[in-house]
Amino acid sequence: MAATILQGKEVAQSIRTELATEVADLKKQGIIPGLTVVLVGDDPASHSYVRGKSKGCEEVGIRSELILKDASTTEEELLSIIQGLNENPNVNGILVQLPLPAHISESAVIEAIHPEKDVDGFHPISVGNMVLGNETMLPCTPHGIIELIKRTGTEIAGKHAVVIGRSNIVGKPVSLLLQQENATVTMCHSRTQNLEEHTRRADILVVATGKAHMIGKEHVKPGAVVIDVGVNRIETGKLVGDVKFDEVQEVASFLTPVPGGVGPMTITMLLKNTVSAAKKQAKR
Length: 284
Ligand code: NDP
Hints:
The chain is α/β, with parallel strands linked by helices. 42% of the residues lie in helices and 15% in strands.
């Protein structure tokens, strides 16, 4: 039977509707959640992501601000902008769009953001709290993936989840969150031998490699939930995932499309983190 297509766009929309109600209630209490996005340079993909984030904010009623700086901006200047935002009570969330130009240290910039305003969940304190299982700002893509899997009605506890990819922003955190949801997790990467042997045992397969179409139906256990995180632009200009959609659709029970799967969830989780940050900061 063909897989049910997991329309992240629709799930994201329903979460945004819930968030819009929450933001309207907060506004009645005088709390206006605010997100500031800082974009350095003119990478077209980054500009497009940032537009999506501003649009999302507008949709749910979050006040958003975009600070655009040219590629020659120094690390010192950027750190001083972040310092100003850390001190600004109207700014609840700060996001510096990555990647940054090569002369700026990404880790220095991430570490400069106050952890309470770290809506990307990349600060070492946020990551440490996530590892410890403490309440914290979860990174948006992994958090979005867990929400998507839950909304399929799949019970994660006790399932065998296989994650391909071990990056700090997707593979590692999603593996950890799946384990915290009581899945038994296998992590695969470019040095994994006999990849197919691992992936064929997965009840839940999360693919985050950035290698277009590397996963075919031979990798997938019939009935598995398959989450395709990859976003790859192929020669034709088309955006495709890491999974061969047409053939995996024949064997999986649920499958995310690219685009329209994980991507919209990522932005929605950013909005959710901004609202949580505003609520937390209002209590102080
Ligand atoms: P990275 O390049 O940082 O990591 C890729 C991972 O895949 C690495 O751990 C690498 O292994 C592993 N890998 C690469 N090739 C293979 C292979 N042939 N077999 C097994 N493992 C392999 O990528 P990201 O995690 O940042 O992103 C992954 C994809 O997800 C990209 O396409 C990116 O655009 C997309 N993405 C989408 C988001 C969304 O919101 N939709 C958000 C973030 C990312 P090793 O560690 O050994 O090198």
